[in-house]
Write a structure and sequence with these properties.
This protein is an alpha/beta fold. It folds into 2 domains: about 5-125 and about 205-285, Rossmann fold; about 130-200, no CATH class. It is about 40% helix and about 15% strand. It has 10 helices and 8 strands. Strands 1-2-4-3-5-6-7-8 form an 8-stranded mixed beta sheet, sandwiched between helices. The longest helix is centred in the middle third of the chain and has 17 residues, at about 170-185. It is globular and about 50 Å long. It starts with a strand and ends with a helix. This is Pimeloyl-ACP methyl ester carboxylesterase.
Length: about 290
């Protein structure tokens, strides 16, 4: 099935690019940290026989324009709102930091009828510390991207637990090798780790901006499915537990044996077909 690329303009004039595939009701996938619209191509393909799937690039990535000064989650909500309006969509899938955007958007955008939220990184009672961000920002400002990526990985608990016992110099060397290998094999339009590294600042700021504000989401009227993976870091499970309590009618699913990358393409360790099955069940009701 052919994929198309299109563009629109958000409220503040920023260009937002997106990819489109499939046929049926519109469904928007909002990617997470260290990802772009290309990160969920296989998930979109698995949904494309029932839905018209839209894959926007969030700001600072791929097809879309840059972040502006004093960026806040309001801008991300405006960007999602622009895509919803432009495409006539009513369904959203938010992944990791993208789930935070979808949560906030569901409070203010009545056009969202159904929202699937995978591993939203809401911080509940200090469930994860942001102390590492000062070091990360310093390393980014110095152009030391390998160190910044290691700092973010450890701070966000994204690597295997054994990485906590591996010397930083070795993690930095492995990261440098990964970046070099990726850039050597990069295809046209691909968004590399080097390009994505500075965007981590904005993704973690979403978590800090919404820290301990989760009770607000009890006012969401859209139908919600809360999705997580059994091997994801504990703070994602804490967030899902908190949301389940204030969204008593939300459906809850945990993917046994999968990790935080479950929604991504298979070449990055994802299991998108498994996730797509549950998304299809949720969104097809009432079609």
């Amino acid at each position: 099935m052919k994929m198309y690329t299109s563009f629109l303009t958000s409220k503040d004039g920023t260009k937002i690019g997106y990819r489109q595939i499939g046929q049926g009701p519109g469904l928007i996938i909002v990617h997470g940290t260290m990802e772009s619209s290309l990160s969920h191509i296989e998930l979109a393909e698995s949904l494309a026989d029932r839905f018209t799937v839209f894959l926007p690039d969030r700001r600072g990535r791929g097809l879309s324009g840059p972040y502006m000064k004093n960026h806040s989650i309001q801008r991300d909500v405006e960007d999602l709102g622009a895509v919803l309006t432009h495409t006539g969509s009513h369904y959203v899938v938010g992944i990791s930091s993208g789930a935070l955007i979808c949560l906030e958007a569901a409070l203010y955008l009545p056009s969202i009828c159904k929202a699937a939220l995978f591993d939203p990184p809401l911080i509940i009672n200090g469930s994860v510390s942001g102390d590492f961000m000062a070091r990360y920002d310093k390393e980014i400002s110095e152009g030391d991207l390998e160190s910044a990526l290691v700092t973010a990985m450890l701070g966000g608990q994204m690597g295997p637990s054994i990485f906590n016992f591996v010397p930083r110099w070795l993690l930095k060397m492995l990261t440098r090798m990964m970046m070099a290998s990726e850039e050597k094999n990069t295809q046209k339009d691909e968004v590399t780790m080097r390009m994505l590294a500075p965007t981590i600042h904005y993704d973690f700021n979403l978590s800090f901006e919404l820290e301990d504000k989760y009770e607000r989401f009890g006012d969401i009227n859209a139908e919600v499915i809360l999705m997580g993976a059994s091997k994801s870091p504990q703070y994602f499970k804490i967030a899902l537990d908190a949301l389940a309590k204030i969204l008593p009618h939300a459906k809850r699913i945990e993917f046994a044996g999968l990790n935080h990358g479950a929604t991504g393409n298979t070449n990055r360790g994802g299991k998108p077909q498994i996730v797509a099955q549950e998304l299809t069940k949720f969104f097809k009701t009432g079609i």
